[in-house]
Structures are given as structure tokens and as C-alpha cells.
């Protein structure tokens, strides 16, 4: 007898939508059979009228990033591993890949095991972190130690020059040389030197209102950075993943690199699909992010990239600051004093279904690919994660495609308690979630506590 069966649902995975019954034994999927086949089990979950999706694999999540990582900007992120993973669980996410920033100067051999232990004690969902990199030669020398721990993706930023986090061409080359054998290089691609110059010019001229934020980080700043880092990756033979792609020019460069057979990959985020710079003018504190919100044409390009398969993943870029801190930064009307980031992990799946699938912008199978299978493949978690197959972890989302609801920040479960999508009417919501066969989300409550999540050590990168 099986532990659990999920019956009556439309199973969405591996490019198809089929009626099927899923049998679970222990933590794994043990059987996938036609609805006419009866499987004996101790527990039955009725998914009639529902979609059954693979658990969402969130490739882009932040928490616990303090004010020390920024310069002259107030506030620190208000989510820790417990609250961020709680919010993720309510959004149908079963695995997160958070960006872990070690305090400057702290050795990875100390920071990473401590953070893994903390996650094991407090995470609601499974986790497989990325390691963020300072421009620090001693830290670069430790990259093989991180890979040995099963952390195989590393992020550097070409922006944020004023904070000391920016890796220039020299450090990017050193990082890529250390990562290329077994790791994946991830890059925040904005030309930090150009941005710093433009920002200084605007501030000197007193042009600090919301309408000047996008001109301080124009499309060309992403285009130039992507061109530089794609060239470096080609020369050094390092696989490359560009995070939070936002421009049509950047998409064109990545499309061309992939056509040449280069190992260049990318993701985008719901806000680069759904919001434009008009939102920066309407709610500047809330949507001050980097890269900035752009134009309708850029949004259309991101949707096209998803449909065409150039963009393989969607991540939320959940970066939860207190709204009071963000508004305090904007108290004098100066958008450059507002910290970067907004929450989003809990609303990601409902928004992508409601605004993507229901409006015909992306197919239902493609949605499952970019939110589950794509991230799992790219980051060495497939087929354990990201798919509904016999032998895979029983990470499932029972998704109600018909429920209508209104997004309200106060009803979400991040410590941020606000959202840039306040008042949006959406259709579709996770109803139940299983994590490795155990009920995690059950309607409006979590059926498991912190510590349910496991650390997933990843194998070395292989395309």
C-alpha cells in the first residue's frame, strides 16, 4: 500500500498536461498511472478540478542582507531564512536557491556550514544556496571548498560600485577561472561605472525624482555589461547565467550567444514582465529595484524570450525591506536614497498563471518549465526536483485555476507585509503543497513547521 495518492487532477509537467493519478511512497513519487487505475494508499488527496504542478523551484531569493551591503541607504532586509521560506511555502515553492552574502572578510569555510546548519533548523522548504562573491582574491581561492560542499553556483555583481561589491573585469576573470571547473558563474549585469557617473550627474543637477531613476540605469548599461561578461565567459570557458534580465538588447545578446553554442543562460522576473517605469513614478519607494523597471517593449521582449526558450527560468528576486525604511529613504523626494528591492516570492506563481497563462502570453506547460523544471535543470537539482516523474521527490502543488482573489500585502507571509501588486485581482492560487510527500501547505495554513526543509547538496555543474 502506498502512503499517498493524488487523484483527479490535470498533471502539468515535461511539456504536457494529462489526467493522471500520482502515487507516493515515502519521499518519492512511486507511480504515475491513468485515472482509471486504482492505487491503494493510506491517504488520498482529491485534486478534481485542479492542476497538479511540480513544486516551484525559486532560483532567485534574498534574505538577511543587512545595511552593511549598501552605502548611504537606510534599512536592512526584514526576512530571515524562516520567514522567507514561510512566504515561499505559501506561494507553492518547495525549493529555494537563496543568495547568501558572507560578511566581508569572513571565510567561506566558516560562513557556509554555519548557514547550512541554520537553514536545516529553520527552513520550511528545501534549500540549495548560491554563494555571492566579493571582489576578494582570498575568497576566490576558497571557491573549490564551496563546490565540495555542494554549492556550485556563484554570483558576482557588476553594479553597486559605491558599496564595494562590484567585481570589475579583473575580478570577474579571476572568479570565472576558479568557477569554470564544476561551477556556474552568475552575474548581475549592469555597468556599475557608467551608472555611478550618470547618477552623480543627475544628483549634481538636482534631478533626483522618480522619473530620473530609469535614465540613471538605461538599457545600454545592461547591454554593455552583458556584452562584456559574455565575451569573458567565452574566452575563459566558463558557463554563465545572467540574473534578472530586463532589456530587449540584453536578450538579443544572449540569443546570439546561445546560437553560437555558448553556455550562456538567463532568467527574468515577474516585475520585468508585468510592470513598467510608469510604476516607478506611481510608487517609487516600493519598486526601486535594480535593474529598474523598463518599458512595455522590454516587457514584451521578456515574454517572447520565455516563449522561445531563450529565457529558461523565472525567479522572484524577493528582496524584502520594510516599507517604512524605503519610504524614509524617499522622504526628501530623492529616489537615489531608497534601498533596492521588493518582496515577491509568494505572489510569483499566481501572477505568472493569472497574467501569463490565462492571458495567452505563455502556455501552461511552459509555465511549469520555467518555474520548476528549468531552474532544477540549470542548477543541478533535476530530476530530484522540478519534475513529476517516478523516482523524483514528491514535491507537488495542487493549484486551483479558478479561484479569484485580491493580492493584499497584509495577508502575505513575508515579514515585509507589503507588495508592489497591492489590489491586483488574480485568478489561480496554490491550494495544497507536498514537500517530499509530506503536506506542507493545506489551504490557508502551513501543516509543517520550520525545520521541514533539507539542504540539497548539488553535483558539479554540467550543461
Derived from helix and strand composition plus strand pairing, the structural class reads alpha/beta
| Chain-averaged pLDDT | 95
Morphology? globular
User: How much helicity do the residues have?
Assistant: 25-40%
In total, the number of strands is: 18
- Supply the CATH architecture of the largest domain: Alpha-Beta Barrel
Per CATH, the superfamily of the largest domain is Metal-dependent hydrolases
Q: How many angstroms does the end-to-end distance come to? A: 38 Å
Supply the number of helical segments: 15
Question: How would you sum up the major sheet?
Answer: 9 strands, mixed
Radius of gyration: 21 Å
β-sheet strand percentage: 15-25%
* CATH topological fold name of the largest domain: TIM Barrel
CATH class of the largest domain: Alpha Beta
Annotate the secondary structure layout.
Elements: E1 2-13, E2 16-25, E3 28-33, E4 41-46, E5 51-54, E6 56-61, H1 81-90, E7 93-100, H2 108-122, E8 126-127, E9 130-132, H3 137-141, H4 143-148, E10 153-157, H5 169-179, E11 184-188, H6 192-204, H7 213-216, H8 219-236, E12 240-242, H9 248-259, E13 264-268, H10 270-274, H11 277-282, H12 296-308, E14 313-314, H13 323-329, H14 348-357, H15 364-378, E15 396-406, E16 425-435, E17 438-442, E18 445-446
Parallel strand pairs: 1-4, 1-5, 6-7, 7-8, 7-9, 9-10, 10-11, 11-12, 12-13, 13-14
Antiparallel strand pairs: 1-2, 2-3, 5-15, 15-16, 16-17, 17-18
Helix pairs in contact: 5-8, 8-9
